[in-house]
Amino acid sequence: MRSAFRKFHGLGNDFLIVEGDCEELDRERVIALCDRHTGVGADGILLRLGSDEPGVIARMVVYNADGSRPQMCGNGLRCFAHHLALRGETTLLEFSVATDAGPKRCTLAPSAPDAGRRLVSLDMGRPSFERSELPMRGEGLSRETVEVLGADWVVYGVSMGNPHAVIFVEGPTRPFAEASGGALAVHPLFPEGANVEFVRLIGEREVEVTVYERGCGITQACGTGACAVAAVLARDRGWTGRELSVRLPGGVLTVFVDAVTGEIRLTGPSELVYDGFLPERWR
Description:
Largest sheet: 8 strands, mixed, barrel
Strand content: 35-45%
Order of helices and strands: EEHEEHEEEEEEHEEEHEEE
Helix content: 10-25%
Radius of gyration: 18 Å
């Protein structure tokens, strides 16, 4: 890992982007860098690598603040695409980036006067409700009622390249995430853990969501989580063909589910916070 880094955030979900020579980062080093008191502070690290895959310009590897490696991160990928443009690695407004969940198409809005802020859209592909792809224990539809901390929860399992547990609630979502998110994220139903979305319907094509992310805890925003919520609403309520506004603690993401193909498109902002250099002990 090289010494220079950049810090970005997407609706408050913040990341350090570093250049790497290999895909593996030491877990303790990741934890130290992400610590908000004694490190730089972040929800995760995005490692930028070269790629030989045809049609892609770089590879993104994600590490959570606890050192674990998820397959995909929607907010992180928006920041990563913004970073590539700022570095001058491409002058294209549309390009693909390799991830552990496969290549993802990124589209940048034309640059504003402040190049440190950018609106980015991602082609996230189709969701999967197959238990084997999450993974999620059991058979049949990826919907289960589970008991956690004395309460029953109806859980919808969705994969957006990483596992999600979508739960609909009545009332403000954050108290539910604070009280039960941690236990649900590591429930035995999900052998590899899951990101848990607590969802409240608040209007026509509008939802409030608080996400408890595996490896991070409650975050300001979660791109794949917003897509997972849209996927369940598209399947069960027919909410397709129009944008869904997903209100997260850090702001609003918009998600579009194609009525014919089921493909999902995620749009939201990315912002450069600052550039920095790592001391020798963290390289």
